[in-house]
Structure formats: structure tokens, C-alpha cells
Amino acid sequence: MTKPTFERELCLEILTQVLEKGGYTHVVLHQALSKYQYLEKQDRAFITRVVQGTVEYRLTIDAVIDRCSKVKTPKLKAVIRTILRMSVYQILWMDRIPDSAVCDEAVKLAKKRRLQGLAGFVNGVLRTVSRQKDEFVFNDWTIKYSTPDWIIEMWKRQYPSETVEGILRAFFADMPTTVRCNLALASEKEIWESLKVQGVRVEKNPLLPGTFTLSGYDYLESLEAFSKGWIQVQDAGSALVGEIANPQPGDKILDVCGAPGGKSLHLADKLRGTGLVVVRDLTEKKIRLVEDNIARSGFSNIRAEVWDALEFDSAWEEQADLVIADLPCSGLGVIGKKPDIKYRVTPEGVESLVALQRRILSVVWRYVKPGGTLIYSTCTINRMENEEQREWLLEHFPFESRSIKANIGKAVRGEWLEDGYVQLLPGKYPCDGFFIAAFCRK
Fold first, then answer.
1. Are 180 and 231 in contact, with CB atoms under 8 Å apart?
2. Among the CATH numbers 1.10.940.10, 2.30.30.240, 2.60.40.2550, 1.10.230.10, which is that of 3-137?
3. 236-441: CATH, from 3.40.50.150, 3.40.50.1360, 3.40.50.620, 3.30.70.270
4. Were 431 and a residue from 148, 236, 256, 343 both cysteine, which residue would form a disulfide, CB within 3.0 to 4.6 Å?
């Protein structure tokens, strides 16, 4: 087996799991790359790009296949459909690979899967794509930005058209890893220098001090700063929760849906060894992720527990100085990092999530002591889950909005900061789509 064929065989296996069997791209890809750690860095980078790019551009790719094939995408054999999809991605978006090589390797893949009779079909479709690739111009945003029409239409009802297109474009930009520094463990300068010594390309994220974007590294786990707990993978938008929360020494904090623990660890870091942060989530599996991060950080003022946020815990009634409610949501703000989200979410699913968020809020608000703070946040771009939930909470429970201008006013500007909330949009800010609202209990 030649190395190029092996790389593409692995891409085919991963994409079959994701596109045909419902696997999550980031999970299946991580599992595969962990299994084949011996592969060269450039080989793993190739696999990552082909997998993520094929998923990201799936609707565009299918439109191209349908234009060049007599058999339309839904009627193709699953293996052939996946081979064509990953090959079209390489032809259209990976200029360094000759089209002829892509076609030849696709034919080899078909034959290896004992589909010799369809090898000629695969070759014919891909040769046609190669010949016509300069003619593919799509004005329909659903095809151009490979995003379901209902999502685009929802955003158009909520934002100006140019803002929506900016969001869609931003999802296709390169997404370097964003990390937040645990400054109780090491200084920003010390962390920066450690990363540079190991050959990592490091840039400061302008949205929030103490956050870096990293690229050019091999494995995150191999970095000294990571193994020592000095850095935590966390988007800058997510990290703004800690800035807005602004915990005070000795605070008792409850994070009700906290896995994998980035926000809770940030709060524990800010408390500088005082107070207590309790982070909860629904399953043992999620809590193990939190516990791994806690162990790596070495913080002693934080612990993790399995707890269903829908179940009221009387022991916490009016006990928390600060409650973090980063609740389950549609995830439309993180499409740039997890592109399969846009194909999974449905209008009906969003409505169910809105109802779930309200059920959780109806329980967890009671944990906030009078004068204490509640932070509601999501990683989505959807007024139903964000601004409308904020208004609903103010109408139904004894809270008032808390200005967040003093916390993030230098990085973010908008009249809504005085009203205690912010909707961060990709393309406008260097982060995921993220919503944060702050409330003070009366």
C-alpha cells in the first residue's frame, strides 16, 4: 500500500463514520489520529484537512457532483459517494495536489473496496469536475457557503444581510487553537516563552488579555505549557464569561453545566486559591473530562460532580455568590470548528433546546443568593436562545440586568453592554459566536 493511498484510505474510513454513520467529526478524527500517532506531521495535517474540508463544504461538493454525474448524490452507493466527496474537495480546494493524482487515488480506493465496476464511473465524474472546475460559480448562499437554507434565513431575519454573509465567510477561515493562560500558575511572559521554545507560532488574541492563538505545533499534549496546566484550550469568547463574572476572593461558585471545565477553571484561577468552584454536568464521562483538566491544573479550590441541572439541589438554595449557566444550545456559533453541527441541528431541535434552557433556568436561579450574580451563556447565534431567553428570565424571576461595560468595554463596544449582555459574532470579533448575559439577584 503506498502512503498516499493509505492516507486517503484513512480519510475514507473517517468520513464514512461521520457522513454515513452520524459520527462527530472532531471525535472520530481525534480517535483516528491518536491511533496513528506514528504518521508524519504533514500526513496527519493532510488527513485533518481533507476530513474537515469535506464535511465543511459538503453541500457545495454535492452540488458539484450532481452537476457532473448522471447519478445524483443521494442515489450513489455510500462508499462511492464518500470517495467522490473527498476527491472533489481535493480538486477544488487543495491546489498543491495534481488533479490527475486525486483521480488515480480515488480509482484505487474504489477498487480496494471491491467496486471495480464503478472505478470507471468514479474516474469519469472526477475528470469532468477537473475540466469544469473554473466554471463552478454558486450565487445561492446555501450552496456557496454550504449552510442549510433555514439557518441562513433565520439569521437574515435577525441581522443585516452583510452581517450574515460576514458570519458565513468567517466560518471558513483558518481556526488556530485558542488557549487561555492560567495566570495563577505562570506569568503570561513565561507561558509565551515556553511555547516559543517548542517552536509554536503564538499570537495574542486581541479580544482578551491572557489568551493566545497557537499554530504550527504537533500534539497539544506534547507542549510543556499544556502538561503543566499553564494553558487551557478555550475560545476567547468563552473566556469572556470569566471576565464578566468577575469573581471576588472567597466566592462560592456553581457551574451547573460545566464540562469540560474551561470556564470553571478560569474562575478558580481568578480566585487565586480562595473560595470554591463546583462544576457539574450530567454524565460520568463529561465529569471525567473536567477532572482531567482539574488534575492538570493542580487547583485545589475546584471540584467536579455528576448532577442533573434539572434536579433542584436544596443544599445550594441561595448559597452561591455566582452561578454560571452555560446551557445546552444549538451550537451555531462554533460551526467554524465543528462544521457537522450545521447539518445536525433542525428548527424543531432549536425549539426543544429553548424549552430545555427555560426548564434549567427555572431550577438554577434559586441557587443565587440575594445580591449574587447569574451568568447565562451559549455558544450560538440565535435570538430565541439568547436575547429572548434573557428577556424571559428578567420577566419571570427576581433579577435585574447587570452592566458588563466595565468588564469588557475595551475589547467590545455596543450599547447593550450597559444592559448586561453581548452577542459576539464571527467575522466581527476574533472568536466563536458566543452570547453572554449577566444578572444580579434582587
1. yes
2. 1.10.940.10
3. 3.40.50.150
4. 236
Question: What is d(CA 95, CA 299) in angstroms, rounded to the nearest whole number?
Answer: 47
| C-alpha to C-alpha distances, 96 to 13, 106, 158, 165, 433, nearest whole angstrom | 23, 17, 40, 28, 32
| Burial (CB count <10 Å: 0-12, 13-18, 19+), residue 221 | exposed
For residue 122, the SS3 value is: helix
CA distance 106 to 142: 27
pLDDT in tens, 241-298: 999 999 999 999 999 999 999 999 999 999 999 999 999 999 999 999 999 999 999 9
Residue 2 has pLDDT above 50, yes or no: no
Q: What is the DSSP string of 268-295?
A: HHHTTT-SEEEEEESSHHHHHHHHHHHH
Q: Which three cell numbers stand for residue 155?
A: 439569521
**Which residues on neighbouring strands pair with residue 183, listed in sequence order?**
none
pLDDT in tens, 94-146: 999 999 999 999 999 999 999 989 999 999 999 999 999 999 999 999 999 99
C-alpha grid cell, residue 407: 468588564
Query: What residue spans define the domains of the chain?
Result: 3-137, 236-441
Cα 292–11–144 angle (5° rounding)?
100
